[in-house]
Amino acid sequence: MSHEDLKSSAHVWGGDGNEGDNSQQRQSLSDAPTQQEATPSDAPPAYSSSSHGTSTGASTNPNASTGIATTTSTSPSRSHPPTNPLAQLASLASLPFHQYQVPASALNPDRTTLTTTHAPFLTNPDSLTNLILQQSALPPKPSLRISGTHKTSSGETTTDFDLTLSLLPLLDVTEPSSSRLRLHPPPQTSGGGGGGSGGSKLFSKSSSSFSSRERSPLDIWARHFCVTDKSEHRSLRLHRRIEGVSAAAALLEGHVRTLLAALKYRGKLDVAFPVEYEDVVVHKRPGNWLVGLLRIYPEKRFEVGEVVWGFGGSASGGGDDGSVLVGLWWREWEGVVRNAVLARVKGRVGVEDWVCWRMGAREAERRVEWGVDWAGDTF
């Protein structure tokens, strides 16, 4: 962490941000090196040893041969984005959210797939190419859902709490979309102008890097779907994938269950990680409604590729799957989740709840176990 970052961090959390001048410490080699203490933040009991295994301090060691002090940093080269929710919201301001609204489109009931039947996307290769490039710049919307239920004395199931927190700010939105888009090889065409190489190798080259004479794989895909293929019933799908989501989900679920056990909750606890806007589908239905109803023509499905999103601060080959950032995020939101659970909230938990927590709002803890089936609905 740089000198300016330390000053900025101290200012955010109420510190004065003043430090000694390091240049004065290096004027004389006879001065003893200043010892720098690292004070780790509090972590949940079950994860205090796994969230931070690397010291972020810097040690100053004299060089025996030259007598010049050298500084060896033990911190990783990657920097994680801020976990302050207000700063995270500011980092999302650059996303073109209005482009989620695609013409002639609808979301399925679980909000995972956006399907459009807009005519230009079915007949105009340029329109389809622009749609895929636009949607490649938009991330999926991951969430953390925590719900608790128990059975009453009459045998009915009642919901104690049902919380949903957005995990969208954890995604890295700084990487250019062209590096995220990984196209599958285009279908082979009899004209010889389309096919890509076989196998499972993906294209990650941006269409803008190809000359006008050489069509990009995305252009070939668009032309094949809109012009070459004559199937009466066909669809093309673009998939958004979050890299490292399984490890992050397991870590967060462990934190949640540890917290709920400490709150003496004994009901049925469900922890889920729904992801909205995972898929964008361009769908051409049969022109005759009766043909579509009877399903005379089977749907021909094309998988154009996927857009890979990662957690902020993670890097390929760096050994970081986003678990450090997830741990830092949980430290910010653990108290908010605690308040919401004890208040039996049913709905979304957001920045306003975090602000109330930071201002000192605290829900009283239960003195006895609650949520057990035999306790009825009296708590």
From TrEMBL:
Stretches for region Disordered: 1-86, 139-158, 176-212
Superkingdom as given in the UniProt entry: Eukaryota
Ranges of Low complexity composition bias in the record: 38-86, 200-211
Composition bias, Gly residues: 190-199
Biased composition (Polar residues): 20-37
PANTHER family from the UniProt entry: EXPRESSED PROTEIN (PTHR37848), SUN DOMAIN-CONTAINING PROTEIN (PTHR37848:SF1)
Name this protein carries in UniProt: Uncharacterized protein
